[in-house]
Amino acid sequence: MGEGVDPTHMCQNLVHKVAQSKQLMAVTDPDILVLFESWLDELEYEVAACLKQHPQSTAEELANTLGLSKRGADFILAKLEREEKIPGG
User: Is the dihedral of CA 40, 55, 77, 79 positive or negative?
Assistant: First the structure.
């Protein structure tokens, strides 16, 4: 024995997937998505402007200056580099 499908595990997995779908639907609401994209554009502009004034700034310095988390600053820097909006480092 011990082979086959565990219905309890399948139900738990299904419930988890449905909950995850509902969370994703909430995040992808068109109105919220537009606001998020606008906010991200503003942050990118602020980071790029800060880098023009202080080109040697690290992600940590940018985070402190702009009130971001270090992880957030890393994300925006990587995005700007990938999109070639700032020179790669």
Answer: positive
Is residue 27 within 8 A of residue 37, CB to CB? The reply is no
Cβ burial 50-76 (10 Å sphere, 16+ → b, else e) = bbeeeeebebeebbeebebeeebbbeb
Residue spans of the domains in the chain: they are: 30-89
3-class DSSP state for residue 86?
Answer: coil
Could you tell me if 43 and 75 are in contact, meaning their C-beta atoms sit under 8 angstroms apart? no
Predicted TM-score (pTM) of the model is: 0.64
Give me the residue label for tokens 């310095």.
Answer: 61
Q: What is the pLDDT of residues 1-42, one digit of tens each?
A: 456 666 677 767 777 777 777 667 766 677 777 888 888 899
Architecture of the domain whose range is 30-89: Orthogonal Bundle (1.10)
For residue 27, how many other CB atoms are within 10 A of its CB? 10
